[in-house]
User: Fold this.
Amino acid sequence: MDQSTNILGLPQDSEREIHPTAIVEPGARIAGGVRIGPWCHVGPEVVIERGTRLTSHVVVDGRTRIGADCVIYPFVSIGLPPQDLKYKGEPTLCEIGDRTQIREHVTIHRGTVTGSGITRVGSDCLLMAVAHVAHDCDIGNGVIVVNNVVMGGHVTIGDNAVIGGSAALHQFVRIGRGAMIGGVSGVEADVIPFGLVIGNRARLIGLNLVGLKRRGVDRAGQHRLRAAYRALFGAGTAQPVFADRLAAVRASHGADPFVAEVLAFLEMPSRRGLIRAGRRHDGADQE
Assistant:
């Protein structure tokens, strides 16, 4: 194995670069093109895919797999034991998808046997500084988690959702695809796909129309989704019973794929129930 140094002064073999101060335990599987910077520690059951970079002072432990072309910044810890007093050292998992960026001081804990057994973060995500992903959380692809966000265990976040800075997500909460959580929001219940919530405690105040436009939803699709939203959550709807509202929306707009996604989300089992609709603090319309 060639132990020459590269232009950065890092010892390297033919495919990977590992700083001399880094500790990579025997048994760790490190793909070609991986760069492990100063003072990192990689545990014996870790798998790191091609092209990923651990900049410095990163700890990865447990049965953890990190996908290809990720960038992990200083003082991040991934795959350490969960903050759960019931956890007794069982061999649970942690998984990070491809091309995800994890910024300074983020913590991501592995799963528990009383949960799903695995904590997942999808591909193409951005987790900003000091965010915490608790045990058994399942984060989809393209999710943005802003600085200082904290999650309880078992949180599920759909693809392309945005979680605003310093938001707190209760255990077992589900965040639907494309939803937007406002900064400093306390989220205690489920958020529909494409929903917009804000406040302490958070309330549903409309749809994430900016996110829908960025996802390429045309104007007609936006109108159908807004009509469904008003029928489900608007004040003074004709059906006072929520099940009747669901049935009416299914009959009128259920063929639309985005409306159908919201309806399917509402009908799935929930540990926390549905977040309540409210209004903006400034009295503006929900949309």
Summary: Helices lie at 209-214, 219-233, 242-253, 257-267. The first helix runs from residue 209 to 214. Confidence is low (pLDDT under 50) at residues 1-12, 281-287.
